[in-house]
Amino acid sequence: MTAPAFPPTTGNRLDVTKMRRISIASMVGTTVEWYDLFLFGTASALVFGKVFFPEFDGAVGTILAFLTFASAYLARMVGAVLFGHFGDRLGRKSMLLFSLTAMGVATFAMGLVPGYETIGVAAPFLLLGLRVVQGLALGGEWGGAVLMTVEHAPEHRRGFFGSMVQIGVPVGTLLANGAFLLVTTTTGSDALYTWGWRIPFLASAILVAIGFYIRLNIEETPSFQAVRDEGAKARIPFFALMSTYWRQVLLGGVATLSTGSTFTLMVTSGVSYGTSDLGHSETLMLWAVMAACAVAFVAIPFFGRLSDSVGRKPVIYAGIAAEAVFAFPFFWLLDIGTTSGVFAAYMLMTLAFSANYGPIATFLAELFGTRVRYSGLSVAYMLSGLLGSAATPAVTAMLLASTGSSSSIAWYVLGAAVLSLLALFLLAETRFGDIDEPGTTSPSTDRQVGAAA
């Protein structure tokens, strides 16, 4: 991805060459984190039910695997508070390196956990513990990666460079599904469930080493340096955040929840529904997810750049509305049972998701002042994951088991979109805000909330 040309900026902002290097470093590191996280989601849909929960029937085993998948989202909230505290006190860079290392160690260790048949009930508990470590790491990594780009970026390119971090989600998912596709096509069913599924987890060590090396040479952001030089750091950032920005945290989390529910629907619930309920091959569903990720790789920065021209909220509004509109057609196309229907369903929903997800990182970052921005951005985003992504796989599996109809899942996606639209309406446009404002008050959003109420 090539950054758009713009003239070097003055003051403490970086020139285009350094800005490109920082955005690539953030994107690569975030790609590794999301690869590790969604590797678990893919494995939950395809193999974990049989490997770690074999005593239960297929539907119950899948639900239990998805509940283990959801446990990381609770840990992400704790990680957001913990890493946000030190990110606002010590800086963005050190937290990025630490979180990346923690994620890599946990993912590699997952590839070594024996199955239920070997060590019994200890197996799923070990898996759960490592999943929690993953959640803690991601809770601190994403916010720091966003701030590395947004706080360095020129004012008229914040939306674009913030969206570069978001590319890590489709690329990480593409790599995770590609790894499983390679394993499923080169090993037999017995080999897949005994040792084949472990290969993508063990291979993550290579990606972590690459991401760590790239991030070693990035610089601290000018916004945080200014706060540190002025001695304006919050003593306890989370308390300072919630005393001043509690509305932005809650509304920002709800406004973002549809991104998590929609994406998790495609990469986890959709794969499980397509293979278990519709009889599509695992290979077909993985290829559909990979094609969707390739489209998102292009669409996300496009919509991020568009938000620099027309504002963050109009683009996000359009994305959420499209997710609501496509909720039922997504399943209608899957239910047709054809390869073209599966790919069409994923392409439509991916475009809607990209319009929503592209500008959302910059939008959330601009809601908070510098002294509590790491905490505010991380907590709001991880709250959205807890509300949206965490529940989606288990809820959709239970809805299918109880109703037998995919329309129940479509209503679930539609409901999440409506909640996000309402929350977004109550938040102010942030495109023209001062990213270097330390942040002791939040008058613009308070006025917006009061007027809307």
In short:
With 453 residues, the protein is an all-alpha fold. It is built from 19 helices and no strands.
Layout of SSEs?
Layout: H1 16-52, H2 58-89, H3 92-110, H4 116-119, H5 122-150, H6 158-166, H7 168-186, H8 189-196, H9 198-215, H10 222-229, H11 237-244, H12 246-277, H13 282-310, H14 312-336, H15 339-365, H16 373-389, H17 392-403, H18 407-425, H19 443-452
Return residue spans where pLDDT drops below 50 for at least 5 consecutive residues.
1-12, 440-453
Largest sheet: none
* Count of extended strands: 0
Query: Mind telling me the C-alpha Rg?
Result: 21 Å
Descriptors:
single chain, 453 residues, globular, disordered N terminus
What does this structure look like?
This protein is mainly alpha-helical. It has one domain (16-452): MFS general substrate transporter like domains (Growth Hormone, Chain: A, Up-down Bundle). 80% of the residues lie in helices and 0% in strands. The protein has 19 helices and no strands. The radius of gyration is 21 Å and the shape is globular. The protein starts with 15 loop residues before the first helix and ends with a helix.
